[in-house]
Amino acid sequence: MKGSRILTASDRALLVESDDLTSSMALHHALEGADLPGVVELIPAARTILVRYDPLRTTAADLSARIRATPVTSAATTSGDVVTVPVVYDGEDLADVAELLHLSSEEVVARHTGATWQVAFTGFAPGFGYLVCDDPIFDVPRRASPRTRVPAGSVGLAGLFSGVYPRASPGGWQLIGRTEATLWDLHRDPPALFVPGTTVRFEAVDPVDLDTHDASAVLVDQRPTNRRIEVVRAPLPVLVQDLGRAGHAALGVSASGAADRISARTANRAVGNSEDAAVLELIGGGVVLRFTAETVAAVTGAAATLTLTTDDGTKVPITLGAPFAVEAGDELTVGAPAAGLRTVVGIRGGIVDEPALGSRATDTLAGLGPEPRTAGSWIDFGDPHRAPSAVHPGPAPTTELPRTGEVTTLEITLGPRDDWFTAAGLTALTEQDWQVTPRSDRVGIRLHGERPLERAREGELPSEGAVTGAIQVPPDGQPVLFLADHPLTGGYPIIGAVTDRCLDLAGQLPPGALVRFCVERGGRPPRTPDTSLGSSHQPHED
After folding, report:
1. Helix/strand/coil for 294
2. Gap between the Cα atoms of 11 and 52, Å rounded
3. Distance between CA atoms of 395 and 354, rounded to whole angstroms?
4. What 3-state DSSP class applies to 32?
5. How many beta carbons lie within 10 A of that of residue 80, not counting itself?
6. Residue 26, SS3?
7. Residues 263-312: tens digit of each pLDDT
8. Can you give 464-510 as a three-state secondary structure string?
9. CB within 8 A of 219, min separation 6: which ones?
10. DSSP conformational letter for 542
11. What string of DSSP letters covers 233-275?
12. 160 contact partners, CB below 8 Å, separation of at least 6
């Protein structure tokens, strides 16, 4: 492991940094074969490997020592496959890229299609491949501020890489074109069109020649069953969630899962389900759900007013956290939360829907899992008589949830890139309040502070793995706190990460709430800004 550094990425993850892509891939291959105790998963990137671990089975110090002792020989073999991608080169940033590279737009297209590209690694989102090529002209800095939505099929450049967005998502790459190629399809083997080692050639085509058929589209079965919930009203989509699909991060698939795992577990325990049964996650209030069969339900999470309207019109107040019986025709109304943001509804028997990679979690960034439900949609639930445990009334939840205008303190670890920020920037991180902006969702919470986080280094990072809870800082200095559906790799420096025990609280932050970060007790002090590596114009994608 000569030349590598091991950095803190969170209270449950390390970031191993190598000299270059080749040595990083070789190390990843070695660590995969080492089967180190306590390692949950490895996420390779341009020059780093994110190592997630179970703190009940190992420690950061012991794992670091084992990583350093792992012998490294060679990288994994390539696939040898060749893929041709038809592209309409009409991207919003094509002219800007041409100016940056001192070429005409036509020359950019000619060089992009003339180069031989290869998938170096995957990440960011399912089907997203980081492509490197044999033409040294392609070294393009990403946008200073990322777009909140990049259309699916967008072809972009960032640093030394090119890539194609598999679905609509936030992104900071320079967009030069678009394609209708299906990058990710669960019905295909393998699901990803781009796998490490694949050779990719881009072909310029006219818009009329682009195939508009989307082979990945799947119709949701809407046939009626005996046990269903009708979404009568929902200002925002109702999501199906469980505890997530951990273990697929190297393919660009996030664990996703409930933003407030404590509330999901509590709701399931209350109705007698296993803790990992699928539940419903609601955002805000104004939701009305109608049941077609009898069961038992429980509502946890945000402190909302809850009312059950029976088939004869009787209105019954419901206690947060307490199980209650439901009959056919009953309607549950969830009011606007007085505290918190997300309400969880557990149904005895669990929510029944088609799993994706072993989970019924809806990943809003990746487009995996059950479709979000809107008014007029139906949701199936399981047989309540087959639930594994008895109904458990239990005490009402007592956790103080975040409120608009009030300060919530979140514990963090510093790193892996706190040395990219000045002393003033590190001070601003923990000594001012950050407001949750309305531009927040399950992907990440966009924060705003009076004093932006000041960098000590210019340039960009090579793309590297990120954990749930990571605090990523774009060039404008206003941080983004990653939630359950975050991109798995990114190139903006991550100054710190919210500790695991505070993630559920972060998932309940409503717009207008204030956040104060504090460094984990016993955590290390900030590193001195490291300028020895110099400025870099390496890539990153989200």
Report:
1. coil
2. 9
3. 33
4. helix
5. 8
6. helix
7. 999 999 999 999 999 999 999 999 999 999 999 999 999 999 999 999 89
8. EECCCCEEECCCCCCCEEECCCCCCEECCCEEEEECHHHHHHHCCCC
9. none
10. -
11. E-SS-BEEE-S--TT-GGGT------SSHHHHHHHHHHHT--T
12. 132, 138, 139, 538, 539
Amino acid at 33: G
User: Domains in the chain, start-ordered, CATH in brackets?
Assistant: 5-69 (3.30.1360.40), 82-209 (2.40.100.10), 228-386 (no CATH), 407-537 (2.40.100.10)
CA torsion through residues 385, 388, 393, 396, sign: negative
Q: Alpha helix (H) ranges present in 70-196?
A: 94-101, 105-114
pTM, entire model: 0.84
Q: CB neighbours (10 Å) of residue 81?
A: 14
CA distances from 200 to 113, 203, 377, 400, 524 (A): 10, 10, 40, 52, 44
DSSP 317-356: EE-TT--EEE-TT-EEEE---SS-SEEEEEETT-EE---B
Angle 378-381-382 from CA coordinates, rounded to 5°: 155
pLDDT digits (tens, 9 = 90+) for 471-517: 999 999 999 999 999 988 888 899 999 999 999 999 999 999 999 99
What's the sign of the alpha-carbon dihedral 388, 324, 287, 410? negative
**477 contacts 452 by C-beta, under 8 angstroms:** yes
User: Is the backbone of residue 211 left (phi > 0), alpha (psi -120 to 50) or beta?
Assistant: beta
Q: What is the β-pairing status of strands 494-498 and 407-414?
A: antiparallel
